Amino acid sequence: MALKVGKFTVLNHPLIQHKLTIIRNKNTGTKVFREVANEIAELMVYEITRDLPLEDVVVNTPMGKTTQKTLSGKKLAVIPILRAGLGMVDGVLELIPAAKVGHIGMYRDEKTLKPHEYFVKMPTDIDQRNLFIVDPMLATGGSAIMAIDALKKRGASNMRLVVLVAAPEGVRAVQEAHPDVDIYAAALDEKLNEDGYIIPGLGDAGDRLFGTK
Ligand code: PRP
Ligand code: URA
């Protein structure tokens, strides 16, 4: 189930909506937050991979030879934007265990809200892979835009941005900067507040995942 406008899609499957409500709740503790964030990421990836290409392959069952389908096309990689993106990686790998993982470290200056890159470590062949960039929050869009810039600079050309909660401001900013990138969210929220937090959102995703602050 999905609501799609251009290259922005809200994956509003009932299970995704239900689980997102659990992690929005301020009384949900770190353990459950972690588990459920990964479960949502897994459900989202299930939805997003519906269009993966298939090819014919001959397989011998115990009963004889048959031609069946297997995945074809480019290999995949998951790219978490640190820290909070780490909270979605295990969920993605549940469904795509052979995916490589590239890390991109970025933090948002609390005053200016501008992102700062502090770490990039990518698989050597990202230019030949389809990438799922994961981060729970798309707020101003600055972090996602900088992450996509960094990946394109390293030769990546096929990538999708997968977030739990998006603000309209962030969706617009990413679409303007990178109109080729598909964005998938579990929810499109109302707005940003004056501190750059998503309303109603779920608070600071990194702090809630790792128990900091
Ligand atoms: C959060 C979040 C995104 C970013 C979104 O990370 O995980 O990366 O903010 O905001 P933006 O769209 O306005 O750039 P944060 O900078 O808090 O770092 P953390 O994951 O280490 O907590
Ligand atoms: N980063 C977060 O973790 N939460 C927000 O609401 C906005 C940015």
UniProtKB/TrEMBL annotation:
Checking InterPro entries in the record gives:
PRTase-like (IPR029057), PRTase_dom (IPR000836), Upp_B (IPR034332), UPRT (IPR005765), UPRTase/APRTase (IPR050054)
Its annotated pathway reads:
Pyrimidine metabolism; UMP biosynthesis via salvage pathway; UMP from uracil: step 1/1
Known activity regulation?
Allosterically activated by GTP.
Binding-site residues, uracil: 198, 203-205
Q: Per its Swiss-Prot or TrEMBL entry, what cofactor is needed?
A: Mg(2+)
Matching entries from Pfam families are given as: UPRTase
List, in alphabetical order, the Gene Ontology terms for molecular function in this entry. Answer: GTP binding; magnesium ion binding; uracil phosphoribosyltransferase activity
Q: Give every Phosphoribosyltransferase domain span.
A: 10-212
Catalytic reactions of this protein = UMP + diphosphate = 5-phospho-alpha-D-ribose 1-diphosphate + uracil
Q: Name one GO cellular component term.
A: cytoplasm
Record's superkingdom?
A: Bacteria
Keyword set for this entry? Allosteric enzyme, Glycosyltransferase, GTP-binding, Magnesium, Nucleotide-binding, Transferase
Question: Per its UniProt record, what Gene3D superfamilies does this chain match?
Answer: 3.40.50.2020
EC numbers for this chain? 2.4.2.9
Q: Give GO BP annotations, semicolon-separated.
A: UMP salvage; uracil salvage
Query: Which of this chain's residues are annotated to bind 5-phospho-alpha-D-ribose 1-diphosphate?
Result: 83, 108, 135-143, 204
Q: Relay the cofactor remark from the entry.
A: Binds 1 Mg(2+) ion per subunit. The magnesium is bound as Mg-PRPP.
NCBIfam families the UniProt entry points to: PRK00129.1, upp
The entry's function note states: Catalyzes the conversion of uracil and 5-phospho-alpha-D-ribose 1-diphosphate (PRPP) to UMP and diphosphate.
Identify the PANTHER family for this entry: ADENINE PHOSPHORIBOSYLTRANSFERASE (PTHR32315), URACIL PHOSPHORIBOSYLTRANSFERASE, CHLOROPLASTIC (PTHR32315:SF4)
Q: In which family does this protein belong, per the annotation?
A: Belongs to the UPRTase family.
Protein name as catalogued: Uracil phosphoribosyltransferase
The scientific name of the source species is: Agrilactobacillus composti DSM 18527 = JCM 14202
What taxonomic classification does the UniProt entry list for its organism? Bacteria, Bacillati, Bacillota, Bacilli, Lactobacillales
